[in-house]
């Protein structure tokens, strides 16, 4: 069975990051061997199963950073230290090793997988961070990541708006070899345009509904691209070929709707 077999684990610690986000630390060696950008499927007993990116690794423990935004994540947020959850994986492709210097662009909760990338490589190469959120209190890991630019949609901290304008400003001021992005699909679509205009390399982590994690159910398809197996990390050339990217998404039932 290997990585596809559900592993029942106890929660070692729970940390409230923002009013809507918590990080759960769990002892799970298979997940701790994942690459930044890969994800695991997490089962909440009595509720459901959701995909979560690994947001950090500490020896054989992993951090799973979760935003409350649905019934399963609400149930997960209710779990405390000593509570149990199920993990399988890791799945998908991770980010490549950063070149120097690199720029991480995270929108909201999307900063989670980039945190692990930063944690793993920032002592080896120069990594700049641009981060954004809806409000100051919803900014994730600002002290840890020490962003060179911040944005909040309500203007409570940093630039008032999305991460796109701060990103453009940083790219004018800094020499960057590669951009790594994670966040809402509309944001990543705009980051793609910015990188294409500057002939910059780009890797992005895509987020779609994933029910199985193993490429069977088809809920995460973008055109014929299976985000769970062919992604979730994709490069600029792959993104350019996806006609539905940034235009259409699928609901939990599989219905296609405009983004």
Summarize the structure.
By secondary structure, the protein is α/β, with parallel strands linked by helices.
Features:
6-stranded antiparallel β-barrel; 7-stranded mixed sheet; 8 helices; single chain; alpha/beta; 259 residues
How would you sum up this structure, described in words?
The structure is a single chain. The chain contains eight helices and 17 strands. By secondary structure, the protein is an alpha/beta fold. The chain has a seven-stranded mixed beta sheet with strand order 10-9-8-7-11-12-15, with helices on both faces. Strands 1-2-5-4-3-6 form a six-stranded antiparallel beta barrel. A two-stranded antiparallel ribbon has the order 13-14. Helix 6 links the parallel strand 11 and strand 12. The longest helix has 13 residues, at 185-197.
């Amino acid at each position: 069975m290997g990585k596809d077999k559900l592993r029942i684990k106890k929660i070692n610690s729970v940390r409230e990051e923002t009013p809507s986000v918590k990080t759960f630390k769990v002892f799970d060696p298979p997940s701790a061997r994942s690459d930044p950008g890969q994800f695991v499927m997490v089962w909440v007993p009595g509720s459901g199963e959701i995909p979560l990116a690994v947001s950090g690794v500490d020896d054989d423990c992993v951090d799973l950073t979760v935003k409350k935004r649905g019934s399963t994540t609400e149930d997960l947020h209710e779990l405390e230290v000593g509570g149990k959850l199920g993990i399988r994986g890791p799945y998908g492709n991770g980010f490549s090793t950063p070149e120097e210097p690199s720029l991480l662009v995270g929108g909201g909760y999307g900063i989670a997988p980039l945190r692990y990338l930063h944690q793993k490589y920032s002592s080896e190469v120069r990594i700049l961070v641009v981060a954004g959120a809806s409000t100051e209190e919803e900014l994730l890991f600002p002290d840890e990541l020490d962003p060179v630019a911040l944005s909040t949609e309500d203007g409570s901290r940093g630039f008032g708006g999305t991460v796109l304008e701060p990103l453009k400003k940083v790219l004018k001021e800094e020499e960057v070899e590669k951009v790594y992005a994670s966040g809402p699909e509309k944001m990543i679509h705009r980051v793609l345009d910015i990188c294409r205009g500057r002939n910059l390399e780009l890797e992005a982590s895509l987020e779609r509904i994933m029910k199985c994690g193993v490429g069977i159910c088809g809920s995460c398809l973008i055109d014929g691209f299976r985000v769970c197996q062919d992604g979730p990390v994709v490069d600029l050339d792959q993104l350019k070929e996806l006609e539905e990217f940034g235009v259409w998404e699928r609901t939990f039932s599989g219905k296609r709707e405009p983004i």
